[in-house]
């Protein structure tokens, strides 16, 4: 049954069970050298090692698997610049149902090719929200497919919440968890898992300065749409969703914004010390953590590396 309200503890537990065979329980890494450099014990939840290379597989699979048999027959559709697109496409392939993915013409080639390899039909559109929505509506009208929103969907939020739940279970006494904010699905899920499973661990939002609508919305107490985002972190350029924002407003401790230069430095350090490749969006939480490291001297903090889908020919460091 599709969720119509903010996920409860039992909804997240049900999501965890539902997606168990569709996702990896990703590892938590740490680096002695990085810890010594920062004076903070940092634990990295490696969602860059998740299926499709990003946390998006959690929410997408939970939402798809929550559909009725009748809905599944007609398939699923979405609009996405990459990671959610891949997650919907792979889930649909495993479930043996059709999938239709609307992608902007400037989506990273590595992500477009991955979506196609999973068997989805890709429909390109102009690189703006209006074009995405209009193209998607045309697809749904023609196919009868069910729209799975990339983040503004309670079943997606419940699926994303399993990431922080695992991290809380696999680490002890975290004093904070840093997670990215794009559309807000992962952040909303992280906040809920902190409330239900983590004794209300402080959750710190991480956002690029060139796409800081969540920070400005949080400060203003109302949703402010992102216009003309300008950041290397392509996965975080979207505006926060209407279902996500109230959860963020109620539970988040702080939001820290970072420059593209700080994001690139975080990517470089993750590569050098953890031997992991993360996409710019995946490095934003670590960049935010480093910017506020003085607050956490000698403490344990968690950082969610949300994705690793980057074109190696275009690494910025």
UniProtKB/TrEMBL annotation:
One GO biological process term: D-serine biosynthetic process
Claim: Lyase is one of the keywords in the record: yes
Top-level taxon of the source organism: Bacteria
Protein name, per record: Pyridoxal-5'-phosphate-dependent protein beta subunit
Tryptophan synthase beta chain-like PALP domain boundaries: 21-307
Alphabetical keyword list: Lyase, Pyridoxal phosphate
GO molecular function terms noted in the UniProt entry: ATP binding; L-serine ammonia-lyase activity; magnesium ion binding; pyridoxal phosphate binding; serine racemase activity; threonine racemase activity
Pfam families (alphabetical): PALP
InterPro entries: TrpB-like_PALP, TrpB-like_PALP_sf
Organism: Marivirga tractuosa (strain ATCC 23168 / DSM 4126 / NBRC 15989 / NCIMB 1408 / VKM B-1430 / H-43)
Family (UniProt): Belongs to the serine/threonine dehydratase family.
Co-factor requirement: pyridoxal 5'-phosphate
């Amino acid at each position: 049954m599709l969720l119509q309200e903010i996920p409860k503890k039992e909804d997240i537990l049900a999501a965890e069970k539902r997606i168990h065979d569709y996702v990896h329980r990703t590892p938590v890494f740490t680096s002695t050298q990085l810890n010594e450099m920062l004076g903070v014990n940092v634990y990295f939840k490696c969602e860059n090692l998740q299926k499709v290379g990003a946390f998006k597989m959690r929410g997408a699979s939970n939402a798809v698997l929550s559909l009725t048999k009748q809905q599944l027959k007609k398939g699923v559709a979405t609009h996405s610049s990459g990671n959610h697109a891949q997650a919907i496409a792979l889930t649909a392939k495993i479930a043996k149902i059709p999938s239709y993915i609307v992608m902007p013409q400037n989506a990273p080639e590595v992500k477009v090719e991955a979506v196609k390899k999973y068997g989805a039909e890709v429909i390109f559109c102009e690189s703006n929200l209006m074009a995405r929505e209009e193209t998607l509506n045309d697809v749904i009208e023609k196919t009868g497919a069910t729209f799975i929103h990339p983040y503004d969907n309670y079943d997606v939020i419940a699926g994303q919440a399993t990431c922080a739940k695992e991290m809380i279970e696999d680490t002890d006494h975290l004093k904070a968890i840093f997670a990215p904010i794009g559309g807000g699905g992962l952040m909303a899920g992280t906040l809920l898992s902190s409330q239900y499973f983590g004794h209300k661990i402080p959750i710190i939002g991480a956002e690029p300065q060139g796409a800081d609508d969540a920070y400005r919305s949080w400060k203003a107490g109302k949703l402010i749409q992102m216009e003309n985002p300008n950041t290397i972190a392509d996965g975080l350029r979207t505006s926060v969703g209407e279902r996500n924002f109230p959860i963020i407003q109620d539970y988040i401790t702080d939001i820290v914004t970072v420059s593209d230069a700080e994001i690139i430095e975080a990517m470089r350090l993750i590569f050098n010390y953890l031997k992991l490749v993360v996409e710019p969006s995946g490095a934003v939480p670590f960049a935010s953590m480093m910017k506020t490291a003085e607050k956490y001297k000698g403490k344990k903090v968690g950082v969610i590396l949300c994705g690793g889908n980057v074109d190696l020919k275009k690494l910025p460091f």
